[in-house]
Amino acid sequence: MKFLHLLIISLIPLILADTSCGPKFKGKCTCGYTTYDNSRQYVVNCTDQGFKDTSVLGFLPQETQVLIFTGNNIQELPWNVFGAIDNLTELTIVDMSNNHIHEIRGKSFHHVINVKRLILNHNNLSISSDDDEINFHHPRVFSNFINLEELHLTNAFADNTSAELSEDLHDIFVNSNLTHLKKLHLEQNEISKFRDRKVFCDLPHLMDLHLGDNLLKEINFDVKCLKKLRFLDLERNKFEYLKQRDLQFLDDLQNSRKNVNLTIDLIDNPFTCDCPIQIFKSWLGKTNVTIRNMENYVCIRKTRRNYVLDLSLTRCKVNSHKHATSTTQTAALVFLLVVLSCVLLGLIVALIYISKDRIKTVLNPALTQVSKKVQYTTIKDDDAPEQYV
Protein backbone atom coordinates (compact mmCIF):
# COMPACT_ATOMS: atom_id res chain seq x y z
CA MET A 1 0.00 0.00 0.00
CA LYS A 2 2.84 2.35 0.87
CA PHE A 3 4.50 1.56 -2.48
CA LEU A 4 1.28 2.35 -4.36
CA HIS A 5 0.94 5.63 -2.49
CA LEU A 6 4.49 6.63 -3.42
CA LEU A 7 3.88 5.64 -7.04
CA ILE A 8 0.78 7.87 -7.30
CA ILE A 9 2.66 10.79 -5.74
CA SER A 10 5.53 10.36 -8.19
CA LEU A 11 3.13 10.33 -11.15
CA ILE A 12 1.33 13.54 -10.18
CA PRO A 13 4.00 15.87 -11.67
CA LEU A 14 3.95 13.88 -14.90
CA ILE A 15 0.16 14.12 -15.12
CA LEU A 16 0.23 17.86 -14.44
CA ALA A 17 3.01 18.37 -16.94
CA ASP A 18 1.03 16.44 -19.53
CA THR A 19 -1.93 18.86 -19.36
CA SER A 20 -0.11 22.15 -18.78
CA CYS A 21 0.69 24.28 -21.82
CA GLY A 22 3.14 26.61 -20.07
CA PRO A 23 2.95 29.95 -18.25
CA LYS A 24 1.88 31.95 -21.31
CA PHE A 25 -1.44 30.11 -21.39
CA LYS A 26 -2.25 30.99 -17.75
CA GLY A 27 -3.97 27.67 -17.19
CA LYS A 28 -6.72 28.41 -19.71
CA CYS A 29 -5.82 25.62 -22.13
CA THR A 30 -5.06 21.93 -21.86
CA CYS A 31 -2.19 20.31 -23.72
CA GLY A 32 -1.33 16.65 -24.04
CA TYR A 33 -1.94 13.37 -25.80
CA THR A 34 -5.54 12.27 -26.16
CA THR A 35 -7.75 10.45 -28.62
CA TYR A 36 -8.83 12.66 -31.52
CA ASP A 37 -10.22 11.39 -34.81
CA ASN A 38 -9.81 7.83 -33.54
CA SER A 39 -6.08 8.19 -33.04
CA ARG A 40 -3.74 9.28 -30.25
CA GLN A 41 -2.60 12.84 -30.93
CA TYR A 42 -1.08 15.79 -29.08
CA VAL A 43 -3.97 18.24 -28.70
CA VAL A 44 -3.96 21.85 -27.52
CA ASN A 45 -7.51 22.76 -26.47
CA CYS A 46 -8.46 26.38 -25.74
CA THR A 47 -12.26 26.20 -25.94
CA ASP A 48 -14.52 28.93 -24.50
CA GLN A 49 -11.75 30.69 -22.59
CA GLY A 50 -12.62 34.28 -23.54
CA PHE A 51 -9.42 35.02 -25.43
CA LYS A 52 -9.56 38.38 -27.23
CA ASP A 53 -6.36 37.92 -29.22
CA THR A 54 -4.22 35.08 -30.50
CA SER A 55 -0.93 35.98 -28.80
CA VAL A 56 -0.75 32.67 -26.88
CA LEU A 57 -0.70 30.73 -30.15
CA GLY A 58 2.83 31.95 -30.75
CA PHE A 59 3.91 29.65 -27.89
CA LEU A 60 2.35 26.35 -28.93
CA PRO A 61 4.33 23.24 -27.96
CA GLN A 62 6.41 21.93 -30.85
CA GLU A 63 4.71 18.53 -30.69
CA THR A 64 1.22 20.01 -31.24
CA GLN A 65 -0.72 18.00 -33.80
CA VAL A 66 -4.24 19.37 -33.23
CA LEU A 67 -5.17 22.92 -32.21
CA ILE A 68 -8.70 23.57 -30.95
CA PHE A 69 -9.10 27.32 -30.41
CA THR A 70 -12.86 27.85 -30.45
CA GLY A 71 -15.56 29.87 -28.70
CA ASN A 72 -13.42 32.95 -28.10
CA ASN A 73 -13.79 36.55 -29.28
CA ILE A 74 -11.15 37.24 -31.90
CA GLN A 75 -12.19 39.99 -34.32
CA GLU A 76 -9.01 39.85 -36.37
CA LEU A 77 -6.24 37.38 -37.04
CA PRO A 78 -2.98 39.36 -37.18
CA TRP A 79 0.20 38.51 -39.06
CA ASN A 80 2.01 35.34 -37.97
CA VAL A 81 -0.66 33.87 -35.70
CA PHE A 82 1.66 30.96 -34.84
CA GLY A 83 4.76 33.10 -34.38
CA ALA A 84 7.47 34.20 -36.76
CA ILE A 85 10.18 31.67 -35.89
CA ASP A 86 9.03 28.17 -34.95
CA ASN A 87 7.89 25.69 -37.57
CA LEU A 88 5.02 23.56 -36.30
CA THR A 89 5.84 20.59 -38.48
CA GLU A 90 3.57 18.23 -36.53
CA LEU A 91 0.48 20.45 -36.76
CA THR A 92 -2.13 18.82 -39.04
CA ILE A 93 -5.52 20.11 -37.78
CA VAL A 94 -6.50 23.71 -36.92
CA ASP A 95 -9.99 24.43 -35.59
CA MET A 96 -10.77 28.13 -35.06
CA SER A 97 -14.56 27.94 -35.19
CA ASN A 98 -16.99 30.27 -33.46
CA ASN A 99 -14.50 33.04 -32.70
CA HIS A 100 -16.33 36.00 -34.29
CA ILE A 101 -13.42 36.38 -36.73
CA HIS A 102 -14.06 39.22 -39.17
CA GLU A 103 -10.72 39.61 -40.89
CA ILE A 104 -7.91 37.25 -41.74
CA ARG A 105 -4.84 39.13 -42.91
CA GLY A 106 -2.92 37.91 -45.93
CA LYS A 107 0.07 36.84 -43.78
CA SER A 108 -1.85 35.47 -40.79
CA PHE A 109 -0.97 31.82 -41.33
CA HIS A 110 2.69 30.85 -41.47
CA HIS A 111 4.37 27.59 -40.46
CA VAL A 112 1.35 25.52 -41.50
CA ILE A 113 2.89 23.49 -44.32
CA ASN A 114 1.60 20.16 -42.96
CA VAL A 115 -1.90 21.26 -41.95
CA LYS A 116 -4.45 19.11 -43.74
CA ARG A 117 -7.67 20.35 -42.12
CA LEU A 118 -8.63 23.97 -41.45
CA ILE A 119 -11.95 24.66 -39.72
CA LEU A 120 -13.32 28.23 -39.65
CA ASN A 121 -17.00 27.45 -39.14
CA HIS A 122 -19.43 29.94 -37.56
CA ASN A 123 -17.39 33.10 -37.90
CA ASN A 124 -18.11 36.48 -39.45
CA LEU A 125 -15.60 36.69 -42.28
CA SER A 126 -15.66 39.51 -44.80
CA ILE A 127 -13.77 38.67 -48.01
CA SER A 128 -15.40 41.07 -50.46
CA SER A 129 -13.12 43.17 -52.66
CA ASP A 130 -15.91 45.79 -52.87
CA ASP A 131 -16.01 46.79 -49.21
CA ASP A 132 -16.35 50.60 -49.16
CA GLU A 133 -14.82 51.12 -45.73
CA ILE A 134 -12.00 48.61 -45.31
CA ASN A 135 -10.64 46.12 -47.79
CA PHE A 136 -10.67 42.66 -46.22
CA HIS A 137 -9.99 40.91 -49.52
CA HIS A 138 -6.75 38.95 -49.24
CA PRO A 139 -6.72 36.49 -52.15
CA ARG A 140 -3.65 34.63 -50.81
CA VAL A 141 -5.14 34.11 -47.36
CA PHE A 142 -4.70 30.30 -47.54
CA SER A 143 -1.57 30.24 -49.69
CA ASN A 144 0.67 28.76 -46.98
CA PHE A 145 -1.59 25.73 -46.53
CA ILE A 146 0.20 23.95 -49.34
CA ASN A 147 -0.99 20.50 -48.24
CA LEU A 148 -4.51 21.44 -47.16
CA GLU A 149 -7.06 18.70 -47.89
CA GLU A 150 -10.14 19.93 -45.99
CA LEU A 151 -11.48 23.48 -45.73
CA HIS A 152 -14.52 23.99 -43.49
CA LEU A 153 -16.36 27.29 -44.03
CA THR A 154 -19.84 26.46 -42.73
CA ASN A 155 -21.69 29.66 -41.76
CA ALA A 156 -18.32 31.38 -41.97
CA PHE A 157 -19.18 34.61 -43.75
CA ALA A 158 -20.79 37.84 -42.59
CA ASP A 159 -24.55 38.18 -42.92
CA ASN A 160 -25.65 39.92 -46.12
CA THR A 161 -22.39 38.91 -47.75
CA SER A 162 -21.76 40.54 -51.11
CA ALA A 163 -23.50 38.96 -54.08
CA GLU A 164 -20.02 38.63 -55.60
CA LEU A 165 -19.13 35.91 -53.07
CA SER A 166 -18.42 33.41 -55.85
CA GLU A 167 -15.94 35.76 -57.55
CA ASP A 168 -14.21 36.45 -54.24
CA LEU A 169 -14.01 32.75 -53.42
CA HIS A 170 -12.69 31.95 -56.87
CA ASP A 171 -10.03 34.62 -56.47
CA ILE A 172 -8.96 33.03 -53.20
CA PHE A 173 -8.97 29.50 -54.61
CA VAL A 174 -6.80 30.57 -57.55
CA ASN A 175 -4.29 32.66 -55.61
CA SER A 176 -4.04 30.31 -52.63
CA ASN A 177 -3.17 27.41 -54.94
CA LEU A 178 -5.29 24.84 -53.09
CA THR A 179 -4.42 22.07 -55.51
CA HIS A 180 -4.59 19.31 -52.86
CA LEU A 181 -8.00 20.27 -51.47
CA LYS A 182 -10.38 17.30 -51.35
CA LYS A 183 -13.26 18.50 -49.15
CA LEU A 184 -14.91 21.91 -49.16
CA HIS A 185 -17.73 22.87 -46.79
CA LEU A 186 -19.80 25.97 -47.62
CA GLU A 187 -23.06 25.16 -45.84
CA GLN A 188 -25.32 27.81 -44.25
CA ASN A 189 -23.88 30.82 -46.09
CA GLU A 190 -27.09 32.12 -47.72
CA ILE A 191 -25.64 31.47 -51.18
CA SER A 192 -28.37 31.97 -53.78
CA LYS A 193 -26.23 31.63 -56.91
CA PHE A 194 -22.70 31.60 -58.22
CA ARG A 195 -22.11 34.36 -60.74
CA ASP A 196 -18.75 32.84 -61.60
CA ARG A 197 -19.47 29.43 -63.11
CA LYS A 198 -15.81 28.44 -62.81
CA VAL A 199 -15.73 29.14 -59.06
CA PHE A 200 -14.54 25.60 -58.17
CA CYS A 201 -12.56 24.76 -61.32
CA ASP A 202 -9.19 25.63 -59.76
CA LEU A 203 -9.62 22.85 -57.20
CA PRO A 204 -8.54 19.91 -59.39
CA HIS A 205 -8.61 17.27 -56.63
CA LEU A 206 -11.91 18.28 -55.05
CA MET A 207 -13.88 15.18 -54.12
CA ASP A 208 -16.61 16.36 -51.72
CA LEU A 209 -18.48 19.65 -52.18
CA HIS A 210 -20.92 20.54 -49.41
CA LEU A 211 -23.45 23.27 -50.29
CA GLY A 212 -26.32 22.27 -48.04
CA ASP A 213 -28.57 24.75 -46.23
CA ASN A 214 -28.14 27.54 -48.77
CA LEU A 215 -30.58 29.24 -51.18
CA LEU A 216 -29.63 27.63 -54.49
CA LYS A 217 -32.35 27.06 -57.09
CA GLU A 218 -30.18 25.58 -59.81
CA ILE A 219 -26.73 24.16 -60.42
CA ASN A 220 -25.29 27.30 -61.97
CA PHE A 221 -21.65 26.39 -61.47
CA ASP A 222 -19.45 24.17 -63.61
CA VAL A 223 -19.30 20.59 -62.36
CA LYS A 224 -17.76 19.05 -65.47
CA CYS A 225 -14.38 20.56 -64.57
CA LEU A 226 -14.40 18.67 -61.24
CA LYS A 227 -13.06 15.40 -62.61
CA LYS A 228 -12.66 13.78 -59.17
CA LEU A 229 -15.94 14.93 -57.61
CA ARG A 230 -17.60 12.04 -55.78
CA PHE A 231 -20.17 13.79 -53.56
CA LEU A 232 -22.29 16.88 -54.13
CA ASP A 233 -24.36 17.97 -51.15
CA LEU A 234 -27.36 20.15 -52.08
CA GLU A 235 -29.58 19.35 -49.10
CA ARG A 236 -32.10 21.90 -47.86
CA ASN A 237 -31.72 24.47 -50.62
CA LYS A 238 -34.49 26.03 -52.75
CA PHE A 239 -34.73 23.60 -55.67
CA GLU A 240 -38.29 23.24 -56.99
CA TYR A 241 -37.01 20.87 -59.67
CA LEU A 242 -33.78 20.28 -61.57
CA LYS A 243 -33.48 21.70 -65.05
CA GLN A 244 -32.81 19.37 -67.95
CA ARG A 245 -29.49 21.17 -68.46
CA ASP A 246 -28.40 20.49 -64.86
CA LEU A 247 -29.35 16.82 -65.14
CA GLN A 248 -27.32 16.56 -68.33
CA PHE A 249 -24.30 18.15 -66.63
CA LEU A 250 -24.42 15.54 -63.87
CA ASP A 251 -24.83 12.68 -66.34
CA ASP A 252 -21.98 13.95 -68.50
CA LEU A 253 -19.67 14.13 -65.48
CA GLN A 254 -20.58 10.62 -64.32
CA ASN A 255 -20.37 9.05 -67.77
CA SER A 256 -17.00 10.65 -68.51
CA ARG A 257 -15.31 8.66 -65.72
CA LYS A 258 -14.76 4.97 -65.10
CA ASN A 259 -13.43 4.69 -61.55
CA VAL A 260 -15.30 7.49 -59.73
CA ASN A 261 -18.98 7.30 -58.80
CA LEU A 262 -20.82 10.57 -58.26
CA THR A 263 -23.31 10.76 -55.39
CA ILE A 264 -25.71 13.68 -54.95
CA ASP A 265 -28.08 14.49 -52.09
CA LEU A 266 -31.13 16.75 -52.61
CA ILE A 267 -33.16 15.85 -49.54
CA ASP A 268 -35.52 18.46 -48.02
CA ASN A 269 -35.73 20.75 -51.04
CA PRO A 270 -39.13 22.36 -51.77
CA PHE A 271 -39.92 20.37 -54.91
CA THR A 272 -43.21 21.27 -56.61
CA CYS A 273 -45.57 18.63 -57.96
CA ASP A 274 -45.80 20.14 -61.43
CA CYS A 275 -44.80 19.12 -64.93
CA PRO A 276 -41.05 19.91 -64.65
CA ILE A 277 -40.72 17.49 -61.73
CA GLN A 278 -41.80 14.67 -64.05
CA ILE A 279 -38.55 14.99 -66.00
CA PHE A 280 -36.62 14.89 -62.71
CA LYS A 281 -38.51 11.80 -61.58
CA SER A 282 -37.77 10.06 -64.86
CA TRP A 283 -34.09 10.94 -64.51
CA LEU A 284 -33.95 9.49 -60.99
CA GLY A 285 -34.91 6.11 -62.40
CA LYS A 286 -32.38 5.92 -65.22
CA THR A 287 -29.30 7.97 -64.30
CA ASN A 288 -25.95 6.38 -63.40
CA VAL A 289 -25.48 9.03 -60.71
CA THR A 290 -26.10 7.68 -57.20
CA ILE A 291 -29.00 9.61 -55.63
CA ARG A 292 -28.89 9.57 -51.85
CA ASN A 293 -32.23 9.46 -49.97
CA MET A 294 -34.26 9.71 -53.18
CA GLU A 295 -37.00 7.51 -51.73
CA ASN A 296 -37.67 10.35 -49.28
CA TYR A 297 -37.86 13.18 -51.82
CA VAL A 298 -41.19 14.95 -51.40
CA CYS A 299 -42.94 17.49 -53.61
CA ILE A 300 -45.85 19.75 -52.71
CA ARG A 301 -49.06 20.37 -54.66
CA LYS A 302 -51.05 23.11 -52.93
CA THR A 303 -50.94 21.75 -49.37
CA ARG A 304 -50.61 18.08 -50.24
CA ARG A 305 -47.27 16.29 -50.00
CA ASN A 306 -46.37 13.53 -52.43
CA TYR A 307 -43.33 11.32 -52.76
CA VAL A 308 -41.59 12.20 -56.02
CA LEU A 309 -41.02 8.55 -56.95
CA ASP A 310 -44.77 7.83 -56.57
CA LEU A 311 -45.83 10.83 -58.62
CA SER A 312 -47.88 10.31 -61.79
CA LEU A 313 -48.70 13.37 -63.87
CA THR A 314 -50.51 11.97 -66.91
CA ARG A 315 -51.45 15.44 -68.15
CA CYS A 316 -47.77 16.31 -68.36
CA LYS A 317 -47.05 13.17 -70.34
CA VAL A 318 -49.73 14.10 -72.90
CA ASN A 319 -48.53 17.68 -73.10
CA SER A 320 -44.97 16.53 -73.40
CA HIS A 321 -45.91 14.22 -76.28
CA LYS A 322 -47.86 16.97 -78.01
CA HIS A 323 -44.99 19.39 -77.54
CA ALA A 324 -42.52 16.88 -78.95
CA THR A 325 -44.79 16.19 -81.94
CA SER A 326 -45.32 19.88 -82.57
CA THR A 327 -41.60 20.55 -82.38
CA THR A 328 -40.85 17.73 -84.82
CA GLN A 329 -43.49 18.95 -87.28
CA THR A 330 -42.19 22.53 -87.14
CA ALA A 331 -38.63 21.39 -87.78
CA ALA A 332 -39.75 19.26 -90.74
CA LEU A 333 -41.73 22.15 -92.24
CA VAL A 334 -38.79 24.55 -91.94
CA PHE A 335 -36.49 22.02 -93.57
CA LEU A 336 -38.95 21.47 -96.43
CA LEU A 337 -39.27 25.22 -97.06
CA VAL A 338 -35.50 25.62 -97.18
CA VAL A 339 -35.17 22.77 -99.67
CA LEU A 340 -37.96 24.13 -101.91
CA SER A 341 -36.43 27.62 -101.84
CA CYS A 342 -33.06 26.23 -102.94
CA VAL A 343 -34.69 24.23 -105.76
CA LEU A 344 -36.65 27.27 -106.93
CA LEU A 345 -33.54 29.47 -106.90
CA GLY A 346 -31.67 26.84 -108.89
CA LEU A 347 -34.41 26.67 -111.50
CA ILE A 348 -34.44 30.45 -111.91
CA VAL A 349 -30.67 30.56 -112.40
CA ALA A 350 -30.82 27.69 -114.89
CA LEU A 351 -33.66 29.35 -116.87
CA ILE A 352 -31.74 32.62 -117.07
CA TYR A 353 -28.62 30.82 -118.33
CA ILE A 354 -30.55 28.87 -121.00
CA SER A 355 -32.40 31.97 -122.21
CA LYS A 356 -29.49 34.39 -122.06
CA ASP A 357 -29.36 34.97 -125.86
CA ARG A 358 -33.10 35.71 -126.09
CA ILE A 359 -32.91 38.00 -123.07
CA LYS A 360 -29.98 39.84 -124.63
CA THR A 361 -31.94 40.30 -127.92
CA VAL A 362 -34.91 41.75 -126.05
CA LEU A 363 -32.89 44.04 -123.81
CA ASN A 364 -30.37 45.41 -126.35
CA PRO A 365 -32.77 47.91 -128.11
CA ALA A 366 -33.92 49.27 -124.77
CA LEU A 367 -30.37 49.65 -123.50
CA THR A 368 -29.34 51.43 -126.75
CA GLN A 369 -32.23 53.90 -126.47
CA VAL A 370 -31.37 54.70 -122.83
CA SER A 371 -27.74 55.25 -123.78
CA LYS A 372 -28.71 57.75 -126.53
CA LYS A 373 -30.89 59.75 -124.14
CA VAL A 374 -28.08 59.97 -121.63
CA GLN A 375 -25.67 61.23 -124.30
CA TYR A 376 -28.18 63.88 -125.54
CA THR A 377 -28.74 65.16 -122.02
CA THR A 378 -25.00 65.47 -121.45
CA ILE A 379 -24.50 67.52 -124.67
CA LYS A 380 -27.38 69.81 -123.79
CA ASP A 381 -25.91 70.49 -120.37
CA ASP A 382 -22.50 71.29 -121.84
CA ASP A 383 -24.01 73.93 -124.20
CA ALA A 384 -25.80 75.79 -121.43
CA PRO A 385 -24.13 79.11 -120.36
CA GLU A 386 -22.45 79.23 -116.97
CA GLN A 387 -24.43 80.89 -114.20
CA TYR A 388 -22.76 83.35 -111.82
CA VAL A 389 -24.15 84.61 -108.58
TrEMBL record:
<dbReference type="InterPro" id="IPR032675">
    <property type="entry name" value="LRR_dom_sf"/>
</dbReference>
<feature type="transmembrane region" description="Helical">
    <location>
        <begin position="331"/>
        <end position="354"/>
    </location>
</feature>
<dbReference type="InterPro" id="IPR052286">
    <property type="entry name" value="Wnt_signaling_inhibitor"/>
</dbReference>
<keyword id="KW-1133">Transmembrane helix</keyword>
<protein>
    <submittedName>
        <fullName>CSON012761 protein</fullName>
    </submittedName>
</protein>
<dbReference type="Pfam" id="PF13855">
    <property type="entry name" value="LRR_8"/>
</dbReference>
<keyword id="KW-0732">Signal</keyword>
<dbReference type="InterPro" id="IPR001611">
    <property type="entry name" value="Leu-rich_rpt"/>
</dbReference>
<dbReference type="GO" id="GO:0016020">
    <property type="term" value="C:membrane"/>
</dbReference>
<feature type="signal peptide">
    <location>
        <begin position="1"/>
        <end position="17"/>
    </location>
</feature>
<keyword id="KW-0812">Transmembrane</keyword>
<dbReference type="InterPro" id="IPR003591">
    <property type="entry name" value="Leu-rich_rpt_typical-subtyp"/>
</dbReference>
<keyword id="KW-0433">Leucine-rich repeat</keyword>
<keyword id="KW-0472">Membrane</keyword>
<keyword id="KW-0677">Repeat</keyword>
